[in-house]
Sequence to fold (1442 residues):
Amino acid sequence: MQVRQQLQIRRFHDLMPFRVREVLLVSSPFDAFILEEDGQLSEQVFFEYRDVSLSGPPRVTHVPTGELALQRLQEHRYDLILVMTSLADMGANALGREIKKLRPGRPVVLLALDRKELDSARSAIDPESIDGVFLWSGDSKILLAIIKYFEDRENVDHDILHGNVRVILLVEDSPTYYSSLFGTLYKELMRQSHSLYSEGVNELHRRMYMRSRPKILHAKTYNEGQALFHRYQDNIIALVSDVEIPRDGKLDKAGGLELVRVVRSFDPQLPVLLESAEEANKSKAEAVNATFVHKGSGSLLADVSNFFRQELGFGDFIFRTEAEGEEVARAHDVREFERQLAVVPEECLVYHASHNHISIWLMARSEFDLAESLRPRRISDFENVEALRQYLIANLRETRRRSYRGVIADFSRKTFDRDAICRIGQGSIGGKARGLAFLNLTLSKNSEDALGGMNVSVPRTTVITTDKFDEFVDRNHLRDFAYECDDDRELCARFLSARLSDELHSDLTFIAHHLDGPLAIRSSSLLEDSMHQPMAGIYSTLMIPNRSRDPEERLREICSAVKLVYASTYFRNAKSYLNSTGNRVEEEKMAVIIQRLVGQKYDNRFYPHFGGVAQSHNFYPIGNQRAEEGIVHVALGLGRLVVDGGLALRFSPRRPGILPQHATPKLILDSSQRDFYAVDLDSTCCEIDVTLSTNVKSFPLRVAELDGTLLPVGSVFSADDQTVRDDLSLPGPRLVTFNNILKHNAIPLAPALLNLLELAEQGLGCPVEIEFACDMGDWGRPAARGRSRAKPILYLLQVRPSATRTAGKEVQKYSFTTAETLCKSSRSLGHGVEESVRDVIYVRRDRWTAASNKKIAAEVGELNKKMTEAGRSYLLVGPGRWGTADSWLGIPVQWSQISNVRAIVEASPSGYDVEPSQGTHFFQNIVSLRIGYLTLPAGAEVPDDEADFFDWEWLDSQLAATETDHLRHLHFEQPLTIVLDGREGRGLIAKPKSQP
Amino acid sequence: MSNSANEFLQSVIAKNSAEKEFHQAVHEVLESLWPIVEANPRYRTGKIMDRIVEPERVIMFRVPWVDDQGEVQVNRGFRIEMNSALGPYKGGLRFHPSVNLGILKFLAFEQVFKNSLTTLPMGGGKGGSDFDPKNKSDLEVMRFCQSFMSELFRHIGPDTDVPAGDIGVGGRELGFLFGTYKKLANEFTGVLTGKGRSWGGSLIRPEATGYGLVYFTQEMLATRSDSLSGKRVLISGSGNVAQYAAEKVLEFGGKVLTFSDSNGTIVDEEGIDKDKLAWIMDLKNNRRGRIKEYVEKYPGASFLEGSRPWSVKCDVALPCATENEVNGEDAKTLIDNGCFCVAEGANMPSDPDAINRYLEAGILYGPGKAANAGGVAVSGLEMTQNSMRLSWTRAEVDERLQMIMHEIHRTCVKHGKDGDFINYIDGANVAGFIKVADAMLDQGVV
Fold:
């Protein structure tokens, strides 16, 4: 009937849209008294719900008369109306009719207190007014059953469409029996649902599992039963029927048997339970392969419960070697089942597989897709029993992995090794972790094909939520100190000496014992990586070796690293940045990510084959590149080389074969990386070092070649042939070109990144940046003995919005002559007009050498401080990359040293042709704070009508307000005019009006 | 410039009005050569200057190709066959968006004299296209080269015109061009130089300029009955030219004191011996590091941050880094410190002020066009090996290189000697010209 949906836990969220929240009980006070013998009805319902771990028990409101009921219905919404047989002012049918007029569609149920009442009421029932008749047998479970029945009736079509849920069909015309049966059936269903609780990884997950329980549909006649069967036959998992049921208006003594025959013609294996008061029907039931229970049996309800366990796979899976044989093993949940599958004897497997027990049991646990995929398989399909075993284990594992993808689990020691992302605490997981969780969810919704054929994943991650940060800061009385302290080292020392809570310490102890290999301990603050505040690089990430044999030592490292990340919330740089964005330090809270580092171990080094940053918007498109096609920066080893602005390779994911940086061998020799970053596993961790980078060291390329990691990304320059060859067996300088990947498609990196950027951009609704790392597995070498070849995996580490600023004031057609122009650039970033800058700080060309860049950064910091105190912003001009970590490539300023800048011009002299800054943390922040950024080609000095230029001569001729060793600071009475057209990437700076 | 020279220049400008770069090249040549023309009537009657500034042939052609998106692109191709008086046309191909007729004629014109100076049988030419390989995929570059050669092939040949690489035409492009030529012409010949080693390229290409520089320097010193043995030698730069120059200086017993890069200069008063040189070669060629790392390895040395080597006391200076790296002040410092021989490994490393100081001081000065002709010479040696269908060993190529540098020097001396002083600038200029001019006269009005 409906389209089947692929089963994922997340869609269970949509199930059961109709819930009974309010029940109106219409009964005489005496009848209500009887019902409430065991306590107020609301309470009874509450306890019934609680006992089966259901949430949201409905409220029961009692009115003594039909008139009052109608009045109430006019004033309030009620989802279910229970009517007792004896009302003072009107009969049940009459009341039902009035209710239907007033509230069409609301279920009205007649509740009889005893059989006599029941029989009397039943014969007079108007089916248009009364939707069901039930017998109160003194057990409040019937209330639960009635509520659930009507919920199921309303929800079944929706839940099958959206969740492919299962259905149990009950065909019984006697209210006495079906009232009991409903109670028992729902009790079994709730018990089974409750047992699925442990399958959930977090509270929401668990709740959603419970919604996926089978629904019960009720028919009172053969005809109704047949119709329901045909309608829902794809989803029916069991039929429970009386043998004698009405058919075509008359009682058919074998109606149930006939119904079974109809059912069997469609599904010979469907579990069927037949009940009858006639013992003779037992053999007839067995003849149609149905289980038989005698209605008069004292163990009727227990027999029904057994039927569910044995035929429908409810409860534990009991491994036996044959029917009624000795129990060999038992599994309470799927995880345990997988573990037992690996070790139970072969005859067990054969027995259960040949009877479809595994499929049935999985079906009962809502693993519908897996159960259906297993059901048609036969033992003869497999080479041997061992192959069957491996097949089952592999499928189980894959199904669980897929269903848990995209979900943030609550930290649980039991499931720790299963969960991709889990959280410790109840607070927020912070911006970075949110991005990671989003990536995880995106991956769960997309196949490998949709990701360009690449295996993509997120590394194992645990998030300590922000409430733990608050707890730490408050318990240790650090807040005031942290706000005031201006010394990052002192901050670190104080935080390191403070104590984590016992609970957190205990959880981290578990992690230290169970998580081996280097770890990245990352900040994930509340404000981090939100739409307008990427805050890239403001807080800390530590990479810790985590290799000590002593778990206590590993625990100490982890705890220290967490504390240092906490401390970085209050570093000078961080406070400065927050202030400049209009945020308050008090608003900021820190979650911490503990993430398994991507890579492999080589001697005392640990690193991925390569890492980098992919951006969906390219701020500096070159040649045929287009801005909206994005850009990727990648480097061998840890991606830190990229984010620090080092010699990384940049390529367009849409045109990976075109590498402008590698246009000639000389360019490759000049621009390709010479060393790489790796975690030094021998280093000590987490001493007081505010750069927090002592564990990451730089190694030369020859080390990568010895490790074998240069192979996928390396090439050789042949001096004799003046050409680059992608063959490391040749002599010559080694180059990191990524030719094997980008030109020869060793792995589909470019299409994968392109697809991921598109997905992330759609998901976040803005241009994005994704940090990634890749482990090439056993690419280019044979697998280690005893295991299969490890495939390359692309790991996603972070996603954050990439702030492009094309909103804002519309750029009007400002027109300036060449003489009026100080700077003209066809590669600028930013959008808008700035007419308040009266100060220029620039690097003196006659004093500048690359060797002086570090000193220049310090001098800029000093002048920036003065400008900040004076409340003035300024234009900054100088060579190379601003903000690079490599002082030979540009001026290595930190954000706090230029916090009052309004626009920056990168203008290098001839011969100092450095690739423009892009994709670095520094640059990211420049963009998000709407700092104008103009880049000029090296040596562009002469004012020109056509080309980019900077009028140095004019600038040098102006009187300086201040001069330092390398800088000049000019102050003008009239402001400069800075015009930036973000749509076309053009920028212009006009001289102050009175000073042509 | 004399009136007659000026008139001649104006006529060239009038005839080639749009080609500003060519005007400049002719102007520079006229300044040094017109006196020779005036002093030798046969050059006037033979209208040598009129003929020499006119290319023998200019081929301009359409180069259509299809890019990766399936779009048709059209570029323009050129080959200027300037002068074949001494041998087949020889000169590089340049792929760059700035390429136009004027630039190529200017380069072709200079090439005639550069090649002549090598004393090898090579004429002069230049070619190229306004195609920009920088933002193209490998396949796009290949398609372009195939289209380019599909026209050019009918105009070139091992005995006709032998192009080589230049800006934008490296090993990759030469490979594509050669592959196409071979297919179209159905022959495997030495039609291009700069080929890969395994398919006809010559040995010691990277070393040639550096070795040649030192051979020339040795020849210069020999004119004063001196040699490199025991001499303090400053070398700037640290690329191929500098490295192999240093290697040869050590062979000749000299003491190399300095290397440099854009960050500064290292000075090793103990001398940079073979092992240290091997370390520098590994640093620069394999590890691609900075020269200042030398002082970490050899703490006895010092590093002059942001400085060139010229302040160090020396006997011989070999600038091998870049254009205009020696100014007048540097030259004065060198001379005051006792330097008596400067030979240029780079192109125009000494600015005009520095050159004047060398000449005024009367020291030995070998200009780049003569001293660094080793690279061009090896091109000719590749042609020779190709025609013989032989591959010489390193030693054989090196030996021939040395002979060529000896010849170049001899020719410069012949035309530059002025009493006891040898003006190598004039010598180089004149030598290159006279050889071409006389050959043109011999071959009639063609």
